[in-house]
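in:
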């Protein structure tokens, strides 16, 4: 885990997320407390659990983005789930333990990728060596006798020494050509492992070969691919051989348990509402009770081993337009002691979103349309008009937060995006100003009709 102070975490989050300082401060402190906990003696360390966070705010204001950027910042296993996908045990739907299984899959993928980079140099040499062998002396196709694997297979007859010397010389030439990139587009036949079909049982994928206890021989198939593709396939195979899967599994479990971040969205949708004379929704309350042991700390069995959830950081989020936080069962409220409220975006926030983040939409659309030789530039008046339009639409229609900007940009650039492209397309330089925005969005979208608010 990177040793970042809360101020440094806040500064990094500010590069991508505008405003919402209260929420960013809360997650920055929670992340730093993890580092502090890791430095303590084991006796006291096991007594300190993360203080989970509940984010309250409308859609599109940055709740998910804060959690996602936080996990990316420290390279921690992360999973985002929708609370509405889960049902109480006994109903049709996903069970809450699949959250931890998904987190483990992400942790395994992350650790395996890191281990692959460590052995990349050695694996690339071995892959290149195999590639040269295949180009010089392609293997003969097997007869497909199903009993051969039981008897150890047929052994190839040994070549005469003269033939071996010729092949060795030719192999050196091929290796030199491979390293210089001369053979990248040449086609070659390689034998790859054919993945067996997987069964879906209770939301988990089960490999038929694993069910047979590895008794079945590995099924292979011949693929005809270009050398550059064959190099990638062989590199993956050689990397897998060099990586210790037990070590990967142990490290992934450790990271998931100690550094894992689980983001549960739409938590307000499973809040039981008992108004109107009706009793609480049993299914919704059941989902909360199923989530409770995961958040409190329990052991979940996964295909990689038992995983404890005691020290994972859980971040829940919801708009809470209809339901209130107090509609959650008290036990669940108690497991999310830190409550932060995210505010609706103002016009100034929209202006900042369009100009300050490194992944601002203006930069994204400039890069996208530059592919088709359309070079955009946005004046300050255009930024002002777009921000105002997004704010007005959120006020007069449904408040969907920063996602409103996607709708505004698509409408604004619809004609340009449709007509751009083609080999005969000349370079087009388009300067977008406020008048252009008003003309293409329409005055009704840019100005707020106050009459509708007069009683």
């Amino acid at each position: 885990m990177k040793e970042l102070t809360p101020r440094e975490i806040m500064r990094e989050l500010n590069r991508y997320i505008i405003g919402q300082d209260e929420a960013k401060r809360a997650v920055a402190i929670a992340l730093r407390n993890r580092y502090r906990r890791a430095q303590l003696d084991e006796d006291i360390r096991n007594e300190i659990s993360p203080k989970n966070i509940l984010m309250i705010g409308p859609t599109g204001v940055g709740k998910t983005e804060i959690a996602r950027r936080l996990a990316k910042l420290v390279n921690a296993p992360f999973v985002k789930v929708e609370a509405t996908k889960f049902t109480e045990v006994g109903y049709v739907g996903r069970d809450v333990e699949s959250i931890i299984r998904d987190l483990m899959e992400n942790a395994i993928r992350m650790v395996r990728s890191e281990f692959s980079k460590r052995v990349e140099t050695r694996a690339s040499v071995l892959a290149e060596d195999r590639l040269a062998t295949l180009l010089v002396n392609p293997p003969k196709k097997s007869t497909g006798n199903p009993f051969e694997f039981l008897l150890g297979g047929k052994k190839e007859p040994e070549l005469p020494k003269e033939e071996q010397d010729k092949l060795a010389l030719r192999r050196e030439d091929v290796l030199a050509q491979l390293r210089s990139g001369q053979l990248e587009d040449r086609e070659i036949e390689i034998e790859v492992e054919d993945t067996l079909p997987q069964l879906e049982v209770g939301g988990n994928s089960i490999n038929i070969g694993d069910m047979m206890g590895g008794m079945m021989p590995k099924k292979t198939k011949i693929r005809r691919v270009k050398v550059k593709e064959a190099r990638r396939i062989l590199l993956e195979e050689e990397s897998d051989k060099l990586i210790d899967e037990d070590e990967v599994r142990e490290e992934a479990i450790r990271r998931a348990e100690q550094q894992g971040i689980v983001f549960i969205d739409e938590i307000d949708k499973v809040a039981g509402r008992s108004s109107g004379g009706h009793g609480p929704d049993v299914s919704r309350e059941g989902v909360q009770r199923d989530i409770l042991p995961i958040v409190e700390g329990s052991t979940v069995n996964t295909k990689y081993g038992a995983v404890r959830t005691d020290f994972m950081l859980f971040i829940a989020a919801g708009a809470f337009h209809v339901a209130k936080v107090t509609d959650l069962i008290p036990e669940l409220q108690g497991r999310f002691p830190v409550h932060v409220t995210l505010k609706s975006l103002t016009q100034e926030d929209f202006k900042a979103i369009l100009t300050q983040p490194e992944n601002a939409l203006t930069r994204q659309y400039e890069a996208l349309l530059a592919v088709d030789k359309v070079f955009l530039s946005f004046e300050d008046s255009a930024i002002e008009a777009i921000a105002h339009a997004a704010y007005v639409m959120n006020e007069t229609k449904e408040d969907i937060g920063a996602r409103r900007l996607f709708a505004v940009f698509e409408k604004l650039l619809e004609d340009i995006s449709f007509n751009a492209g083609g080999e005969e397309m000349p370079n087009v330089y388009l300067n977008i100003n406020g008048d252009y925005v008003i003309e293409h969005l329409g005055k009704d979208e840019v100005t707020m009709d106050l009459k509708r608010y007069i009683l």
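note: The longest strand covers residues 187-193.
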